[in-house]
Amino acid sequence: MNEQMATEPDADGYTKALSKRQVRMIAIGGAIGVGLFLGAGGRLAQAGPSLVFSYAACGIAAFFVMRALGELVLHRPTAGSFVEYAREFIGPWAGFTSGWMYWVNWAMTGIAEITAVAIYVHRWLPDLPQWVTALIALGALVAINLLSVKLFGELEFWFSVIKVTAIVVFLFTGAALVIGGADVGGHTAGVHNLFDNGGMFPAGIGIALMTLQAVIFAYSAIELVGIAAGETANPRAVMPKAINGVVYRIGVFYVGSVLLLAMLLPWNLYSGAESPFVTVFSALGIAGVGDVMNAVVLTAALSSCNSGLYSTGRILRSLAQKGEAPAFTGRMSARHVPYGGILFTSVAYLAGVVLNYIVPKEAFDIAIAVASLGVVATWATLILCQLRLRKAALRGEVERPSYRMPGAPYTGYATLGFLALVIVLMAFAGTAERIAFWSIPVLAVVLVVGWRAVKSRRSSAHQAGERVAAGD
Prior knowledge:
The protein is about 70% helix and about 0% strand. By secondary structure, the chain is mainly alpha-helical.
């Protein structure tokens, strides 16, 4: 099919270089990341089969967040995404805060992703230090993002194809093994694995609740499709289908995968040292199949890191245009790539390389815990903006799109309550989660100081302008 794409830059300097084919796969692939491919193993070992309920609960919240995003995108497609919506419906300070919290999310997510890359490569090159692998991966992905949006879209398309294909193959294979009661590594696959070894809640309901933070992280990146709307031809026609594709697959890909993992092997055979998918396929004893799955989950980690560089580049440029980020981050290349923001984020990713050098075993958990704060902030912003959009529409100030968040405003309030619960629970979880929780006041102080500095600079510039005008 011949896909028509605009090549002339828009008012923001972006070209409509992402095709319908690429956007749909980016939307689907964005919902499948290292949180599932790697994180699910450690969480199964921690909470047992009850992890299925955590994924289902977070999946419901993710569904409403995506529908809220869809309504906002149909209201006004923009590469600034929720930062621009926060500025429009809540206030300038909200745009500043949400933009920087999203950057924190992806800065930490990128650290988690390059850590995952190093863990996966360790299977083949056990003597290669984690930080070396992380550095090589970072260099390659920065180069790809700096070249062109079209190259990013094409690479992300194929990354997503690999991820989705792998999940589909796993779902069919896993279902067949469970139905047939197959032998998996000396254990019989079946529903009984959900109830043996301590039942559905072997570590208790409290521990199951503690996994919500990590599962929220697993769903991060689903909002990427909203940022891609600003570089998509005919977004009002493409976006509803792309977003629906995400929400309908969440239940199948995430909840279905975790349910099958829990039925294929006893929960205590999984660990955070490798992907649970690799654990299962390696247990089948088929030569090379574990390595193939390891290669697949490696592409998933690279894909997510790739998306992080893409999205933060656009968000930082949106902030820089308002004087809310360093001027360098607003620079655009001749290829219509916001290279300043991409390079700024890549410097943060270098901190991940250092973290892998200092504490290689704890790097992943610390990164995803802090990243979860950014995910919650982003999701909460989208819900709040949708609530404000609805109120503005009721007042007759704007026209509400036909693609809407179901059950609003009550589903919005319930989602916000759930997100608040996730944050509170982090204070009672493991060391990594507590580090993240107690970083909240630090982040709040930094954001308040930053916003006051922005306002002060604007006020000084305004006063200087008035003095010049008076002198004239």
